[in-house]
Write a structure and sequence with these properties.
- It is a single chain.
- The chain has 419 residues and is of the alpha+beta class.
- Among the domains are: 2-85 and 343-411, no CATH class; 213-309, no CATH class.
- 44% of the residues lie in helices and 21% in strands.
- A hairpin with a 6-residue loop joins strand 3 (133-145) and strand 4 (152-160).
- Helix 2 (31-47) packs across helix 11.
- The longest helix has 24 residues, at 2-25.
- It is globular.
Amino acid sequence: MTHYNTFSQEIYTAKRSILHFSTKLSAGMQKPHQKFFLDMNYGLAKSNSVRLSDIARSLEEPIDTIQTIKRLASKLETFDEEPLFMENYKNIIRPQFEKQDNLVIVDNSEVVKPYSYKTEALGKVRDGSTGQIEKGYWTTNMIGVTKNKKHPIPMYSHLYSSEEDGFISSNEETYKGLREIQQILEEKQATFVMDREYDNVQMMKHILHQRDHFVIRLKKNRNILYQNKPLNVRALALRRKGKIAFRTEIKGTTYHLKVSHIQVELPSLKGQKLTMVVVYGYGKDPMVLLTTKEVKKKEEVLSILKAYITRWRIEEMFRVQKSEFGLEDMRVRSLKKMNLMLFFVAAMITFMSMKIEKGNVFFAAVLYQARAIKAKEKIKMYLYRFLAGMKAILNRDSHGISHFKYLEKRRGRQLVFQL
């Protein structure tokens, strides 16, 4: 009886959490759209899958599953309240970014669709796991991280193709995201953390125009100005052997690093003071970062390095999207449906990250249900276990989510007598 009561409480708490999150996400929408959001969030949490067939089965509706699939597919295509749900989502995540200067990690990822033929504007992408050119789409992604546990909060996610109407460039897709971040942060600043593919002057100028900061990993063949003399980045970096020692752990591996910094300029940004941070210990050649941040103290140098190290959180988020939710296995054909599905996955990751950040009794109960996953314990990344724990709890539920909304409403309408 005790086990039954515990499971019932966990199911109730999990469903209530999803209901409250969905209610905030769909606030002000038409009732059919509110139900659709609740179904999608619950379905993703229970099935860990973006397949509409898996989501439909997880809803436990007393009708033919085919009908549920058709209803969800229709809602994905006809949904027309994008501005409202984006505003609701911004309101949910905005309290996570209260600092005057907020870290925002930027990266592209690919959605490989090698067996697709009829999906809209199907383009070509480079598969990051094989290096081969495949059919698929690109996604532009920007995330913040939670204050204490540093878990990802997606701030901007957009799927696009070079074959779609109106496509300009991948840089333009990034600029759209940068402008969205401005709207989320309002009067606050961002420090955008980027890898080598973003090492171009136009990107830097755009960020500077927004009065934000950047930390960008430089390509070794770039030339830079040091004491008004042009030098190759690698040649200049090799002059600095690293005076500051720093020990860090990334994905379970410990690194002993040596760090130095140099004040430099770029030929195309004359007059703009920049700092080059040189890091030894990741490989044979030093890693080189360029930032708009002024660096004078040891702590300021290390803060730049720590900002870049945080970038691996977005890589983990990509793994969660693809390995845990099966993002590349989407069975929808239009760009609109794919982007909406990408949003639901991003929203579910935000839901989990916010629950992980709280670290309350419910968080402990969910992790306990995923206790079999021990390989990830070295990595302080709880998304995998939280996702598995939620699935384990909800798989014991045979009623679905539709009736729960009405039960909660009835609970809220109970008469209360003041004593």
